[in-house]
Amino acid sequence: MLDAWGSRKDRASRALFGRLTYAYKSRYLFEFNMRYDGHSRFKREHRWGTFPSVSAGWRVSEESFMESTRGWLNDLKLRLSWGINGNYGGDSVGDYEYQGVYNAAKYPLGGKVNEGLAQTEINNPLLSGEKSDIRNIGIDARFLKNRLTLELDAYYKLTDGILCRISIPGSAGSKTPPRMNLAEVTNKGFDVMLGWSDRIGEFNYSVSGNLGYAANVVSHYKGPLKQGWVEENGESVWKTNLGDVSQGGDQRVIEERRINEWFLRTGYRGNETYYGSDGTVNPGGGPHDGMIRTEADMKWAKDMVAAGYTFDGFNATTVGARNGLYYGDYLYADNNGDKIYGNDNDRILLDAASMPRYSFGFQLQSEWKGIDLSLTLAGAADFKLFFREHGYNSTLLQFSQSLSRNVAENHYFYDPDNPNDPRTNINAKYPRLTQNTQNSSIRNSSDYYLFKGDYLKVKNITLGYTLPKKLTSKINAEKIRLYVSGENLLTFTSFPGVDPEQGSQPRYQPVRHYAIGLNVSF
Fold it and tell me: Is residue 454 within 8 Å of residue 383, measured between CB atoms?
C-alpha cells in the first residue's frame, strides 16, 4: 500500500417550535412564535439559540368610531411585527471550526528533516450562529367600494454576529485565521403597492404598481476605513488601514459603507487648457475624457512627467512609446494627491454596488366580451455593474479571443509618423488595440467600465379569447379559451451587456418565449 486517506463528518440540526394565535371579533389579531434551534457546527455550549417572534394586527375600520368613514373606507388594518431569526453561516462555514486542525508537517532538527504535526487553522471555540432582529410596520387599506387598494410596509433588519474570518499578522505563520461572529449589517427599506380595479359597462380592468426600496450598510466589521496624509520625520506620508479593516478587491466590505461597494480608480477628467498663464503645466488641464487623443494631449502628458508627476507605471521613456502610455490610452485620476495618477492609493469608494436599491413593477388585467389582456412589467434601479468583456468592449487582442464589431469599427487609431493614415480615428468610442496588458487602458480596473444597471422589462403579455357559453355548451364544455403569450419580450436599459437582471456575467441567456395555447374545462 502506497497511500491511504479518507474523510468523514457528521452534521445535524434540531429544532423545537410552537405557535400561539388569537383573534377577537376579527378586529384584534395576535400571533406568537418560538423556536429553539441547535446545530452541530458549533461547540455544545454555543450551538443552541432561542428565536422568538410576535405579530399583532388591528382592523381599525371595524371600530365604532370609524362609522363615519364607511362610505369611502372599506377596510383599514395596521400591522406590527418583531422577531429574531437564526442562521448557521451557509456552506462556507466548516463543520468543525470550533476545533483545532493539525496536518502533517516537516521540520529540521538534528541536521535532518523530521515529520511532525503543525496547526494549520486557528480554531474558535466561541463560535455561534448569526442572528437577525427584524421589525416591521404595515398598513393594508381598501377604499371606494374596494376599487382602490393600498399595501405599505416599512422594515428594519439588524443582522448581528455574521461569521467572518479575521486578519492575522504574518508572524502567526501560514495558518488559516479563525472565524468569528464579527460583522453586523443593517437593512432598512419599504415596499408599497397601489392598485385600482373597476368595471365600465362590459369592460373589466385592474391595474397595480409596486415599489420597493432596500438600503444596506455594514454597521460593524473591523473598524472604519481611515486613510490620509500624516507627518512622519518631517515628511508627509500617505497612510491607510484598508487591508486591516476590509476584505475584497474591486468590491469591498467596509464598515459604515454599502455591502460590496465598488472600490475603483476613477477616470481622469481635464479641461484641456494644458498650461497655466505662467506657462507651467496644469495638472487639471489634460484631456477632457482622460484619453490621450491628440498630439497636444501627449505633449501635456510628457510635460507632466518632466514636472515630477507620474502616470502609474510609466516614466519619461515609456510615455509616448507604443509599449507604454500611448495615443488611445486612458489616464486615471490622482485622487489622493500624491502626484501619481492611477496607483492603488487612488482607488475610492463610489457609493455604488451591484445590488439594486430600488425594485418596481406594474401589472394590468383586463377583459371585454371574452377578450382578455394581461401585462407585467418589472425593473430595478440604483446599481452599477462592471463590464469589460472580450467580444464586446475589450480592446485586448489575445489568441483564440474574438474582437467585437463594436471595437473593430470604432477603436482609436492615430500614427504620429503618418497623421494622414486613412485608418485615423481620434474621436473613437473605444481605446486603441493592444496585444498585452501593460497599457493604462486595460490593465487596471476603473470606473471607465462601470455601467448603470437600471432596467425595465416587459416580462409577459398575454392575449386570450374565451368562447361564448352558447358555443361551448354544445360540446358539454364549461369553458374554452384560446390564448397567445410572450415572455421576456423587451428590456429597456443603457447597460451594454447581456442582461442586467442577472449581473455582468449572466449564467444563461435570457430566453424570449412565445406560446399559443388552448384551455378546455368540462
Answer: yes
**CA-to-CA dists, residue 300 to 272, 288, 389, angstroms:** 9, 13, 31
DSSP string, 84-139: EEEE--GGGS-S-TTS-EEEEEEEEETTEEEEEEEEEE---TT---EEEEEEEEEE
Whether 347 contacts 227, CB under 8 Å: no
Distance CA 290, CA 299 (A): 14
CA distance 345 to 264: 10
Helix segments in 392-518, DSSP class H: 405-409, 469-472
Please give the Cα distance from 278 to 276 (Å, whole number).
Answer: 5
507 is written with which cell numbers?
A: 449564467
Per the CB < 8 A criterion, the answer to whether 207 and 196 are in contact is: yes
Strand arrangement of the beta sheet that strand 251-254 belongs to: 246-248, 251-254, 261-264, 348-349
| Per-residue DSSP letter, 171 | G
Contacts 24+ apart (CB under 8 A), 469-478: 476/522, 477/520, 477/521, 477/522, 478/521, 478/522
Asked if 522 contacts 478 with a C-beta cutoff of 8 angstroms, the reply is: yes
- What's the pLDDT score for residue 100? 80
* Banded model confidence at residue 440, pLDDT cuts 50, 70, 90: low
For residue 321, give the C-alpha cell: 512609446
C-alpha 265/C-alpha 182 separation (Å) is 29
Measured CA angle at 419 (ends 281, 317), to 5 deg: 45
Query: Are 341 and 334 a contacting pair, CB within 8 Å?
Result: yes
C-alpha distances (whole Å) from 420 to each of 325, 397, 414, 416 are 22, 25, 9, 9
Contact 52/17 with Cβ under 8 angstroms? Answer: no
Distance CA 415, CA 421 (A): 7
The pLDDT tens digits of the residues spanning 359-401 come to 999 999 999 999 999 999 999 999 999 998 877 788 888 777 7
pTM listed for this prediction: 0.87
Kindly report the CA angle at 318 between 315 and 322, in degrees rounded to 5?
160
HSE (side-chain half, CA atoms, 13 Å) at 281: 17
Altogether, the residues listed in the chain come to a count of 522
**Close Cβ partners of 55 (under 8 Å, ≥ 6 residues apart):** 29, 30, 31, 79, 80, 81, 82, 83
Tell me if residue 207 falls in helix, strand or coil.
Answer: strand
- Cα–Cα distance, 522 to 520 (Å, whole number): 7
Among 449, 451, 407, CA closest to 431: 407
